[in-house]
From TrEMBL:
It comes from Cladocopium goreaui. This is Fe2OG dioxygenase domain-containing protein. Residues 1-29 form the signal peptide. Keywords: Dioxygenase, Oxidoreductase, Signal. One of its GO terms (molecular function) is dioxygenase activity.
Amino acid sequence: MSPRARATLPTAFLVLAVAVTSLAWRSRAVSFAVLTPRPAQKAAQEAQEAVDFSQMTGPGILHEMIGEYALPKPVVLSPHGQLRVQEDLGVNVTVVGDEAYIVSPQHWSNYRPLGLVEETYLRDMEGETVSHEENPGIRVEPDFVSEAEEDHIMAELIELASTFGYDFAAEEEAASSASWRMTGRDEKKTDLPLAPWGWGKDFHESKLPSGLRSVVEKLQSLPGYPLGPIRDVTVNIRSSDDYQMVPHVDPLLDGPNSFVLSLLSSAVVTFSPIATLRTEIERANDDEQYAQHSYTDDDIDCLVPRRAIYHFAGNARYLWTHAVRPSVSAGDGTDGTFERWGTWDKVLRREKNRAAIIFTFADPM
Ligand SMILES: O=C(O)CCC(=O)C(=O)O
């Protein structure tokens, strides 16, 4: 296989991206069970019948299975009343049934208008610019931190990781991929102590390392993003280019405003509408297929430059998944691995190291 003629990327990405024609797909076996998704209301009813409310300490979250992906629905069950549910979730909710609520995030027009920057970084699966009408609520803030701030944040995180970081590489990922995660949310995946800053209603901003605290303060004063209290900070660090993050919806209790800061490397993050994923269950669960063709034809690729932060809320947060596709290697021995941006005409060379730091905020209430 031979390289395709090199295509030119927007100047800012020139050093990061090359174009290739033929790529050899590295396959990893993925098994999946096809489950038929049920309509939200029927699922809510069934779950309600099965729930023993006397045992519930927090809201009950319903999930929809799309193949292997368990996606939380924006519907919760709780015996504790609307105000308590809003406090538990960090977002307004609307009553939809007996002790059942649906999230009602703030209106999209509260955020800064979509602009040239989103036109620059978002692509559909034909490589076209995503119009503002088609954008489900994704915004990009390039150069959010300086190089010096990046160094400072990374130094603090590496230090903290020796106490709080746990390995989260998927089994099928390369043994060399040292990946670790730090969060104050109890994911029941490790016996290590949780990160000291906590989570949800019990988040302690003062316990963040100074670099992350500065990011939180900057976000809180960023024009065009009305935010309530911070509820989650989760750190993912990879030291291998062999990774993927399957389509997922962030935990409902994290809150309605997700920001992800990308350090050490750029990345392509893929948003998929859940409604289309339901019709593409097999393709969306088959890594050979989605590495090449993405999860659905309605996907949107967000190119996130190094040191940028992206934000997603509203439909992009609750009705779309986000994911990082596996990278592929060129079949001609070219060094490195690549990920497509929209189409294979524009590809990003993946760096070995990347940190993705997620900051989630409540809505102002
Ligand atoms: O790597 C990214 O930009 C996304 C991270 C993410 O979605 C997550 O950790 O839940």
